[in-house]
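Checklist before submission:
- one chain only
- standard amino acids only
- sequence pasted in full

Submission:
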Amino acid sequence: MVDTAAVETSDLVFKIVVSGPTGAGKTTFIDTITQRSPDEPAERHLDTGDGSAVGMDYGTFAVADPTGDIQLQLFGAPGEERFRFMWEILAEGADGLVMVVDGREPDGWREARNQLNVLQAVAAAPGIVAVNHDRAPSTIEAATSCFASTGLQVIACDAADHTQVADALLRVLTATLQRIESDDEQTREADAW
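Returned file contents:
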């Protein structure tokens, strides 16, 4: 875990893009962790009848830190290729990425890699690949091999489990804070010259 005292975190807000193929569990991931008021509607998208969402999900997750509150704004990207233009728009200014993939559907992982290529071309942000549904060690090993070229850590994550989703987001936050700390250190070194 990064020493957050070294990074000024007083009331920071980070943009995290949650993406993945259709039906992978993006909406569940965001809904599991989202903190919304009781009067805010749970439905933020059109249900197609097959369990997939058309539209964009949004939620927030607050992290208490000794130096101040940190808020993660979660933007769920639609999984269909026809919404590629939205992937690029959502990736703009992203501080972190979460790619949710269905462990039971390795055929969809190529599609997920294509989404990651688009997202990473726009946002050079740290992130993770969260394997949902089938989280067996052999599945995680296969996913790690498949996503090795992306530079993202692959983890098992039940998108319906609050603790696992929180852990996944804290991994992304830690990587983001480490990147900020590293960027600040490089800036200080450059200024010293």
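Reviewer check: The chain has five helices and eight strands.
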